[in-house]
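User: Is it possible to get a 3D structure for a protein together with its bound compound? The compound here is zinc ion. I've pasted both below.
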Amino acid sequence: MHASRDFIEGLPKVELHLHIEGSLEPELMFELAKRNKVRLPFDSIDEVRDAYNFGNLQDFLDIYYQGMSVLRTEEDFFDLTWAYLRKIAAQNVMHTEIFFDPQGHIERGIEFDTVLNGISRALDDGKRKLGISSFLIMCFLRHLSEEEAYRTLELALPHKDRIRGVGLDSSEVGHPPSEFQGVFSKAREEGFLRVAHAGEEGPPEYIREALDLLKVNRIDHGNRSLEDTVLVQRLSDQRIPLTLCPLSNLKLCVVDDLRNHPIGKMLDLGLRVTINSDDPSYFGGYMNENFIRITEALGLEESHLFLITQNAIEASFLCEVEKNALHRRLQDYRSQRSS
Ligand code: ADE
Ligand code: ZN
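Assistant: Yes, that's possible. Here is the predicted structure of the complex:
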């Protein structure tokens, strides 16, 4: 019997792959457009949702960068982040590690500090008022140069207390991790943890490069690792976490059907897989919706979902004491469900 909707909704969860700009719901997009007098190429919320039909990653990114144009003030970044946190609080998410794309804002003339202050003020409130712990991960846009990534890293150096790690996102094919080896090495020297999108559309070679050259702690997506048996063995031996995003993969045509999603095979192989939402506003769901849809498609059982959540706790950037506290909350849920 696959896990029920009710079980999933109550399950305490950990999210490790979420682009905060990708949580911008059309309603807030319109509100901010009005507040900031930004013209949108859409006349209604329905028209926005109708535009969310993507043939590949680039189709989505074009709309994603356009959507960001309404974010201008610290208050906007606060409102965006607070809306996401309220949403996940209602979905029993205990801890989240959030990407942001400063280059997508700096190139529009928005100050780095405006972005960071708005997001981190909401994250502080999230901890205080909702009990959700969080880390921020600053992504470099891989369609831009490594030199620009270096400049972005410089801006982050005074804020190490608020930025836990760096990541690599945007258009994957044609922009291999090797192009960012220098800046990741500098980020590592400066004490930042590291992740990179790899193997979403790009080949298994990009996953190897992310591991060997960028020295990442986790791989974001990693779907295409299954094409390479030597790589799979390595992911298994080294317990390397993969942050998978089922509804994203479906919307961006990385998979043609959730029944063919690689997480089923990956679970069979014992890989350290996690389930995440990526850009929930654009892909049709937050954590619960991702868990529910993949569970129904693959017939996942409660034991799979416990394992996936244990994986996410272990793969998080929390310290051992904090991880243990989350493991206990998960265990309490398990006991409560079986009694
Ligand atoms: N930026 C936001 N979402 C992304 C994704 N799924 N892949 C690459 N870059 C992204
Ligand atoms: Zn992503």
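The longest helix spans residues 112-130. Residues 19, 22, 57, 64, 169-170, 197, 200, 248, 278-279 surround adenine (ligand 1) (CB under 6 Å).
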